[in-house]
Amino acid sequence: MKLSGVLWALLTGAVLLFLLAPVAVLIFSAFDDGKFFRFPPRELSLRWFGAALDSPEYRGALINSTIIACVSTAISVTAGLMAATGLSRGGLKSRALVELLLLAPLTLPLVVWAIALLQIYARLGISGTFGGLVLAHAVITLPLSVRILLATLAGIDPQMEEAARSLGARPLRAFLRTTFPLALPGVLTAAVFSFLVSFNDVVVTTFIAGARWMTFPVRMYSQLRGQGVDPITLAIGAMIVALILAAVIAGELKFKWSRRL
Amino acid sequence: MLAAKSARGLVAPAVLLTAGVFLAPFLLLLAMSLWSQPPGSLMLDVTPTGEHYRRITTDSYYMTGLARTIWLSLATTAICAALALPLAWWIVRRAGRFRGLVLAVVLIPMVCGALLPTLGIVNLIGPLGVLNGTLKSLGLIDRSWKLLGTQAGILIGLVHAFLPLMVLPLVAAMDRLPRDAEGAAMSLGARRRAVWTRIILPLCAPGLLAGSALVFCATLTAFVTPLILGQGKIPTFATMAYQQASLVLDWPFASALAVVMLAILAAIGALGWAIRQALPGAAR
Amino acid sequence: MFGTGHFIRASLAAGAVLAAGAVAAQDFSGQTLVVGTWGGDIERLLKEHAAAPLEAATGAKVEFLLGGSGDRMSKIYAERQNPTMDATFQNIYEAPQLLADGLVVPPDPGSDMYKSVWEGMNEGCYAMSLVGLGIAYSKDLVSEPPEWADMWNPDYKGMIGMAPYPSSEGGGLLGVAARLEGTDEHDADAAFAKVAELGAPALVYTSLEEVFALMEAGEVAMAPMISGYVLAGLKEFPGIGFSFPTDPGPVLIRDMVCQVADSPNPELAEMFIGYALSAETQKAYAEEIYFGPTNSTVELSDAAAADTINSPDEVASLLQLDWSWLIEQRSDWTERWNKEILAQ
To answer: ipTM greater than 0.90, yes or no?
Structure first.
């Protein structure tokens, strides 16, 4: 009994180490002073972090990524919350079909789809625009929002909201006063994951983004296909990962994110 | 209950968005898979032809590539299940106050995107990476252990990327198990192994199935991981589609590849659905 | 060295830049020129030497669209009715195809910038830089700068790194292999059979870093690579060398700069290309990243001259392939490459 407990903990520890190691190595390698990472490193330094903070290109790319992710998240979560409410409270006959449609983008190989989307955008004259890019990001994050919010609403009793309405509250007000506060942790979770998917996307953005809206991952990917990844990129990546890590730990402890996926 | 009219109104924005930005290009992709390119040109000729489908289904190269992709997906799913079962169990029954922290660690690959962790894996298992560097300085090996550019390397990356998709549904399923189920069974004389095979696994089956479906789909269309960790030597569906779409610029053929893959996915989805219906307690 | 021809061309080029400045007297402020190129050093050099002066002279803004050149090809074809890019950098493997499909403005043989470039180099678009496909090698495993034939030494079987196909590097390797067999790239069977003798590649690289790491680890002996970045990257890797073979010579590879047809800002695009082809930009390319100038008036430092293709003799010694033919074979050869070389 005791021995098996130890084995169990060791196994768990090994799996957790496996999950953590690549990210830990990534962060560590950003401290390597050389232009190309090798282990053991010859010298450690903070110079790439300094260079990262000084570079206007990277700052611009990070700001772009953040703006795009914020706007597409707002669209995705708003549309997702409305859809989840309609689906879970509406008793629609076509519910299964609508759910299938909304979740379908999860299964599509994005590389080929992005080229088709670009052709349509070009016809409409919106390729390379902010609007076009944000809509594309909203669509790839929408399935996630819908999934999370459907699960959230399924756990909330609709009777409160109905009671509020039977007492004469307008529907929107009734929703905002009763269901919404209860759904807030789910909404935040959906927002965070939509944000991350949008912020990290490479494949769709490479094709759809115009020069004005070059994002950080696209910049990184373009290096990966050329000279190799710049240590500055690695330093920024390390900072992003560290930030995400902190956010996830806080989110998990505060909002129990993992239960909502 | 909402009135059907307002329910439709609520669903409309999401449906319109998905229909306009997702479905329309998807239909174009379907149509494109039947088009062709005139000789010496990369422009599109819209006369319908089934040539690309004939080429994919009759050429062993593409069928092998698709089969390899499915095999990698199955292997990833199986390894994820094998790792996630004990981990999820530990989280649910033993983690105690570390539960939140451990779950946060589990979420990492999911929230960091494909690119950054993959670069980390390159620096971990590459010829000048941490693993080989350590083994070499300990004098255990003198030529580096080759993981990049092999199926094993790709599997490491895929399992890492998609393990959370397996762990989370399993944790949810195990949370719903009555806490004293195994104690009761053991007090009735059941052996540990029997408790697992007779009680825990069957009750977790819906979670396992949901996790498997997520991991399988994600692996099938994964692009960055096999491209970088396979060093271009292990063609999978997504890297073949990328080569055709972005390097050869044969969009009709790339579209046909995507459609074939999607058909396979749909078939597997239908199979999964049928299994789920057959399971006890199918209604969630 | 400094003949009359040179002098005339120098003044023509100077005139071109002045002319660009004169046209700019009309104000372009508020307009944005979009240029597609590679991220990294090239983006930085273009920003400093072409975009900055253009912005100063015209009041317009220049923005760069970064990515691989294949991604840009996709974009140009997808947006053919409504282009958003004005100018784009492509390689020799792509530019003639764009011209054949009418998606770029043909280079104007009457223009000064056309004439400032080495004769015969503007193929499809304007030639931006000249680089040679040579051999990067591990000094530990290969004692002397290798010739092409040395790659076929049985000791190195399976230790050769290759670029993904289709690419200039892949086309170049097939062209060299065919010549070693006494024929040329039009004999596909001979070319593929010879390349297949190298064994499956030790890796298929998409970035230089990957090749260098494996060479340091002693797992890749040689890789056909394009001079330029490689020579710049070697400073970090003392154990790696680069050889310009002589029999046959290095394969001539060119980066091209194209003006996209029907783009939103044609005048600005043309001016940008003028700045990109100017002696100043090309000198920076050569001095900093060892990309040989196409502008025949550029004068280089000794160090840069030694590592770049910059004299008529050097240009003449390069192996020129029939790129139009290679491009036409794109789809069939990709399939053969996948099956006969990668999947051995």
So the answer is: no
